[in-house]
């Protein structure tokens, strides 16, 4: 009788842990619209169109919270919103190419306050030119406190979106200071 009770309790506990881990993994993906900065200040507006490519380097689980497509969409929407370039072009025919790669994304999987660090590589080149107009890295961090969301997966999602949003904002500010 005791063994049956213990076995039943172990099965329920295992099921609860399985459900909790599934819930943790679900809903963590960073959303493009949440990675677009609310306020973008630009110094110069360039009279060129740009094709935007965003990538996440490597295939580790934590970096996969940000998909290439969501990152590219966030970059594109941010550029359009800021007006730093005349417009964006999908595919061929743009005056410039902007390639932004997330090189590193340090995300804790547990904690009350989640601190995330991101390092990106930015490369802007004019079509047909081998030498980039600008190339550099940008490192940013963001903290999602317990008060932002109760569940860790929600805080992780908010922190991921926040750190990428901050990084995009700094990148666009840098792009707007260029003279070319």
Parts with pLDDT < 50 across at least 5 consecutive residues: 14-26
> Kindly state the mean pLDDT as a whole number?
83
H/E topology pattern? HEHEEEEH
Give the helix level as a range of percent. 25-40%
Judged by helices, strands and strand pairing, the structural class is alpha/beta
CATH architecture: 3-Layer(aba) Sandwich
Task: Describe this protein's structure.
- There is one protein chain.
- This protein has three helices and five strands.
- Strand 1, helix 2 and strand 2 form a beta-alpha-beta unit.
- It has a five-stranded mixed sheet with strand order 2-1-3-4-5.
- 36% of the residues lie in helices and 28% in strands.
- The protein has 180 residues and is of the alpha/beta class.
- It has a single domain, classed as Rossmann fold.
Quick take:
It is built from three helices and five strands; from the N terminus they run αβαββββα. It has helices at residues 2-25, 68-82, 152-176, and strands at 46-56, 85-88, 96-106, 114-126, 134-144.
């Amino acid at each position: 009788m005791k063994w049956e009770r213990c076995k039943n309790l172990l099965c329920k506990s295992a099921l609860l842990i399985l459900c909790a881990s599934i819930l943790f993994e679900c809903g963590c993906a960073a959303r493009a619209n949440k990675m677009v900065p609310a306020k973008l200040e630009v110094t110069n507006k360039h009279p060129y169109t740009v094709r935007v490519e965003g990538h996440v380097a490597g295939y580790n689980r934590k970096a996969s919270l940000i998909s290439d497509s969501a990152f590219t969409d966030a970059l594109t929407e941010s550029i359009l919103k800021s007006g730093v370039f005349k417009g964006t072009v999908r595919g061929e025919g743009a005056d410039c190419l902007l390639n932004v790669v997330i090189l590193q994304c340090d995300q804790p999987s547990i904690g009350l306050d989640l601190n995330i660090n991101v390092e990106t590589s930015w490369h802007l080149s004019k079509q047909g030119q081998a030498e980039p107009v600008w190339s550099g890295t940008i490192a940013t961090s963001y903290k999602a406190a317990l008060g932002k969301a109760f569940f860790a997966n929600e805080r992780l999602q908010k922190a991921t979106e926040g750190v990428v949003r901050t990084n995009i904002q700094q990148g666009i500010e840098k792009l707007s200071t260029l003279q070319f």
